[in-house]
Amino acid sequence: MTTANAYPVTQTIRTIGILGGGQLGMMLAEAAMPLGYQCVFLEDNADCPASLYGRVFHSEQLEAFIAAADVFTLEFENTPTATVEQLANLSTSGSKQGMFPPPIALDIAQDRLKEKQMFNALDIATVPFKAVNSEAELQQACSELGLPIVLKTSRGGYDGKGQFVIKQDSDIKAAWQDLKDAVSGKGELTPTPAPLIAEGFIHFSREVSIIAARGQNGQVRCYDLVENHHHQGVLAKTQAPAVGTSHLFKQATDAITTVMNHLGYVGVMALELFVTKDARGNDAVLANEIAPRVHNSGHWSIEGAVTSQFENHIRAVVNLPLGDTDNVHPAIMLNVLGQYPDISAVLAIDGAHYHSYHKAEREDRKIAHITLMPNDVADLEPALAKLVAVLPNKVGLDKKLASGVIDNQPKVTDHSAVIAADKTSKDSNDTVKNDNAIKDSQTKPVIEAKSKTEKAKK
């Protein structure tokens, strides 16, 4: 029996090598299959979610992994930069088709100080911050930024570790003693010597993010701004699009386009933002951090956008034209944390789409997500209430619903304490957030980033 060749004769890429095998790798593989591509994964957990869709190579099998793939990408930004550089060099030699995103994107994303310095160098506003290499510099940072501040390691740290909130002068010495080993690379916080970073506090009304894809030809396509809500530092809910943010869309698209062009980025990137006020009292955004990969706040796009973030990432990596990023229907995405719900109860809700990650249950672990997209937008909030009622872990949304808080009607919150959680998690894709609430008087005015190339278009 003769089988037909499944690939066009002009197609030189057949297999995509993905660094990491968590749920993001799984969903990338799901998006790659209809386009005719297979995926393999470099992941030390043989039973990872992505194992359902392709062969998993242990990190000690790096050479076999390289041999099995034609082009490379990643789903976890804490991938060692040395590995990414090795794969990027293979494309320079012509033996492979490329490594996307480029190593510089990981280098920036893995260093909070470099990340904020990059934003400011590109005229993208952030919270006020200072590098700290000594107790004397910490004293100076506290004086210049004003208390309270949060002191963090610029590299490493996870689940709130590697952070210290300094509320008064008497906290300074304790904060330095707690984190000083990171400056020399000693202790468990980070093996790489790096300065600490002191960040000031602002008031912000809400947290939003924007996701964009950039192709190998430099084309950028942006998704709608979405609003994110967190529970104990973990993303719990994303609303797409974020209600009442059309006036902020250009600021956000200019910022992410500028960053992607600056890095020569290829693939999908997320930019997390705070909505605050500029010096003139107008709504503006502050850049918090980038994620050089597909992102949790974009999961709604599988059903809710013309082209999902996962498909657009695959398209960029294999050098296909990017797809339309328009929102086809308002949606709410909820993360399922810790314990699986009754799938029958979930799917009994009109417009519910269930995505299991095939992970073992564990407290606060991301094990699935559910996207709500009822036909009638008026049914979105009632559907949310029904869904929260059947979730074992209600991620605090039951209290909001009971108190009558409607999440799509934002209110300004005077934050008096930092959310002591950080973006870097040792469990692939179980990522938590790095948020600060800081004094308005310390916030630098937002300067709209000016892209030197074609702006992202909806």
Spans with pLDDT under 50 lasting ≥5 residues? 1-9, 406-428, 430-458
By DSSP, the count of extended strands is 17
- The end-to-end span amounts to 48 Å
Tally the helices: 14
Radius of gyration: 22 Å
What is the molecular shape? globular
CATH superfamily of the largest domain: ATP-grasp fold, B domain
The average pLDDT is 87
Secondary-structure arrangement, i.e. CATH architecture of the largest domain: 2-Layer Sandwich
Please tell me the total number of domains: 3
Estimate the helix proportion, in percent: 25-40%
- DSSP strand content: 15-25%
Q: By helix and strand content, what is the structural category?
A: alpha+beta
